[in-house]
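Thread: quick sanity check before group meeting

JM: Hey all, I'm pulling together slides for Thursday and realized we never actually wrote out the predicted structure for the chain we discussed last week. Dropping the sequence here so it's in one place. If anyone has concerns about the input, flag it before I start.
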Amino acid sequence: MPAIASFSAQAFSKLSQPLLDQIIAVPLPGLGEGPVDSEFSESLIKLSRFKRDNQLEWLGGVQPARLEEWLSGLWLLAGDIDRSHAISQDIDNREGSFLHGIMHRREGDFGNAKYWFHRVGSHPTIDQLHQHTAGVYEDGAAFVDLVTTAVRDDHSLQDRCIELQWMEWQLLMAHCL
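JM (edit): ok, ran it. Output follows.
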C-alpha cells in the first residue's frame, strides 16, 4: 500500500476522496509488467464508460486538458501497461512522452523507453526528482539504465528503483493536476 509523499500531498488533495482512497489501496507496481490490480482495474473500466464530464467529476481536481494523462497514469498504477500505452501513444506533449517512456520501461523495452524519455527533454518532474533523490534520479534515460541494471544484474537495486518509480509517478501526476 503506497503512501502519498509530502511533496505530492497538496496536489493530490485536489483529487476526489474515492480516487485517493483507491490510489492508496493499490500495491506499488513492480518494475515490469503487472501485476494488474483487479479491483482498481474494475473501477477504471467503469470510469471509461462514463461521459467525459462524469470522468472529470470522479477524478476530482483533474483539469479537462489533463484527463488523458491521468487516465494513462492510473492504468500504469493499476498495472495494466497495455491500456496505459493505448492512451499515452496518442498524447502529443512531454507528459505523454513521459508516460510512454514509463510504459516501455515497465514492459522491458529499455531502448524504446530511452527514446521516449529523450523526447521529454527538460521537465519540471525530472528537476523535482533530481532534487528529492539527491541526484540519484538524474533524468528518465539514466533511470532506465538503473532499472535495467536492477532487473538484469543487481536485484538488490529493485526495491530502491520501485521507490523511485513511485516518486516519479506521484510527481508526474501532481504536475498534471
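AS: nice. DSSP finds eleven helices and no strands in the chain. The CA atoms of residues 13 and 52 lie 21 Å apart.
JM: adding both to the slides.
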